[in-house]
Amino acid sequence: MRIGSDYDGRPADLMVAVHAWRSAAAIERFKATFPERPVVLQLSGTDIYQYIDSDPVPTLRSMELADRLVALNDLAWRVVPKRLRPRLCVIHQSAARLSHPRRPSARAVVVSVIGHLRDVKDPLRAAEAARRLSATSRVRIEQVGRAYTPQWAARARAEMEANPRYLWRGDVPAAAVRRLLARSHAMVISSLSEGGANVISEAAVAGVPVLASRIDGNVGLLGADYPGYFPVGDTEALARLLQRLENEPRFAARLRQALARRAPLFRPAREIAAWRRLLAGLRRQSAASITRDAVARPKDKP
Hints:
Oligomer: single chain
Strand order of the largest sheet: 7-6-5-8-9-10
Radius of gyration: 22 Å
């Protein structure tokens, strides 16, 4: 197996491409060189919720050339063209269990926000919602993730200065993210769009309640009946959920129970098995195609 940021032209039995828009040229080159060899395309959130509309030609061309399409959430089919849906399968991203027991903080109600600071993540929504809580609230928002622009870094620093309930720690190692999850009472994902955020898998496996914007990428992981949604960009609605999380033990229990029902979807063994089934199906398809070609090709005369 070879992994690279672009296709180098060397022979391969198949290509697994990530991101239809960014991999368009690589997919085109591979299929031009090896037209009979399969391409598996894993669709990103920006593919299906942005580029399919804003730059459809390379995005749709990649999807047309691919033999199989992989989505990360159960509702992605809605934006995949009908003619391509038979090629689509959903493989949820998995997450490992925490290496140490989960112990939510006793000093505060810690709500984590895990993800880089960029527009599509609406990253300061939880901090803004925490401002609307009562003076006696113990909710604290702790955010980790790199600022994509100097402007986002400046906004996060300004929020920390103005909001005593908010802390931005910047980019941290994966082990620090897991430690934050282990002492969190909940996690907020406030994105405007998502393909299928792995941080939801991590929270579900860790048993950390999730408060999520109601978008297909989140609903396609957590399920339509999950009780922890708020409308995109609705600060007041998120503040109400934070208040209920802090003050209503039954609500927090409902969130944990709903997550526990979804957690098996994110087991590593399940993800590995799904990829093995997909690749085995492609091998069988390729073998059948070779057999059909051999039967259809007339034999040379003696």
